[in-house]
């Protein structure tokens, strides 16, 4: 077969298998299609499918096909993060800065601490730190992965729970938005390269000037042109950030963060995000699965994933409950907020992919983080749904 034909077989597998599992298995309650696609990527990777059918795996996912899939995956995830940056509402966050700052700060700091302690324990054994990873980078990277909240997936889950437009949903979006900014800031610190300091400072200075210019341009061109110009801006920022050594995903986020969501129609924005998730993000999930590795031993990887899951869940809940006490939330709210902010798939996977690209962590660490992200995301809806019903019942009794 030609490379084109094998590529299309791979695309057929990528889109067919997760969809059939999701639809026939009716997994939506605990695993939305996005989560099934991520799990599908792991199952189709070298650790599962590749181990069971090595010749078939080498035939379908040969180097030429994987290169083509990676190109689609890079652009897909850049667009996805760009949209996430655009949708950050920092003005509302500033208006409610005390409540948002306390909650978002504790929601990030406590799981970061717990995750860093788990990373220190992992580093007592070989196989978890990458060849280019300094101990502080590995510890901070794993700790931050435990603290991440995936804002786009959070939006999808809150839509399913019918709370996205309710006051509690809008509050949770503010907390997650603040943490999103912090995540990319910490990532930039981890990736700071003293050998490329001149380039990185040059990028930041150039970006500030270019951001000022693009904001003026976007307000002066027709609304129909803003999407196209925005994508040009995205590609330019991604290239410049990668050239400076900060990784193209940092550029993708920054390119969206300096653009106002008000410049786009909200319905079109929702449709654009949905189309990215539908048409190209499944390729990213598969390419992510292809990077999983179990060489240190399956039990060791699962043990590390369990340790990180406990650190992430316990840390997030502890931080949010502390914030609830300080701010005087009503009974039951902290638990709902804490569990919804557990949603990690996507942004954490992107974050961990960058650490792996830079060889700060190993494939085994990446695999453990990926399993942790899937586990925490799958817990969200089953745990939150009854708690929301209980909170609504308490409010009805008071009313």
Return residue spans where pLDDT drops below 50 for at least 5 consecutive residues: none
Sequence of secondary-structure elements: HHHHHHHHHHHHHHHHHHH
Span between termini: 68 Å
How much strand content do the residues show?
under 5%
Helix content: over 70%
Major β-sheet, in short? none
Write up what this structure looks like.
This protein has 399 residues and is mainly α. Helices cover 78% and strands 0% of the residues. The chain is globular.
Short overview:
The chain is mainly α and 399 residues long.
Keywords:
mainly alpha; 399 residues
Write the layout of secondary structure elements.
Elements: H1 3-25, H2 33-43, H3 49-52, H4 54-60, H5 63-86, H6 90-95, H7 97-122, H8 135-147, H9 151-160, H10 167-190, H11 197-220, H12 223-243, H13 248-257, H14 266-279, H15 281-289, H16 298-327, H17 333-340, H18 347-357, H19 363-398
Helix pairs in contact: 1-2, 1-5, 2-15, 5-13, 5-14, 5-15, 7-8, 7-10, 7-16, 8-10, 8-18, 9-10, 11-12, 12-13, 16-17, 16-19, 17-19, 18-19
